[in-house]
Design a protein that fits this description.
The chain is built from 7 helices and no strands. The chain is mostly helical and 187 residues long. The protein has one domain (28-186). α4 (71-89) packs antiparallel against α5 and α5 (97-116) runs antiparallel to α6. 22% of the residues are buried.
Length: 187
């Protein structure tokens, strides 16, 4: 190597405190409400918003829609980018992103198994509810890391439910209604 090579910071090393957040800040209660009330579909929006914020903050040439559609394949990368920024910022948070990723893959695998292979119809609702709680736990840990990184540990800047959130909650309530009715009919 030549001694004349100049080292430049990695594209993920961004000065914190800038006006543009690197990741999507959400209040913890709002995150859990949205995940549970939308039957977990809020994760899709959450994933998209994180990749969009990252692209805008660092100028990365990524396509947030593609990373959202293929979410499970890019989730590890997202977790590692968050973890790297936490270490760079010296805002310590013991969140074990690799373990959370294993949990996310496990939950996705079980969900796929339920959809493709199927299970006893009476077991679908308890399994789906357990997976939703597990997914919420994982996402809460990740969101806590993001909020801490962005200097808003409680996510106050995005803690209130908006009209759009209520619309999604209403749509999710319809899904919940049919799932509960279907479970009761099978009982």
């Amino acid at each position: 190597m030549s001694a004349h090579l100049k080292t430049t910071p990695c594209c993920t090393e961004v000065e914190l405190g800038s006006a543009m957040p690197m990741f999507y800040v959400v209040g913890k209660n709002k995150l859990v409400i949205m995940l549970c009330m939308t039957f977990g579909y809020y994760f899709i929006y959450w994933n998209y918003r994180n990749w969009k914020a990252y692209r805008l903050a660092v100028g990365a040439k990524i396509w947030p829609v593609g990373r959202t559609v293929l979410g499970i394949f890019f989730l590890y990368s997202l977790f590692m980018k968050i973890d790297r920024q936490l270490r760079i910022s010296k805002r310590h948070y013991n969140w074990h992103p690799q373990n959370l990723m294993v949990g996310a893959i496990l939950a996705a695998g079980i969900s796929t198994y339920i959809c493709v292979v199927g299970v006893n119809s009476k077991a679908i609702f308890p399994m789906a509810l357990t997976l939703l709680i597990f997914q919420s736990f994982i996402m809460l840990r990740v969101q806590t890391a993001i909020n801490r990184l962005e200097g808003d540990p409680e996510g106050h800047q995005n803690a209130k439910l908006t009209l759009s959130n209520y619309a999604w909650i209403a749509a999710g309530s319809i899904i919940w209604f049919f799932v509960i009715c279907g479970t009761l009919m099978l009982a």
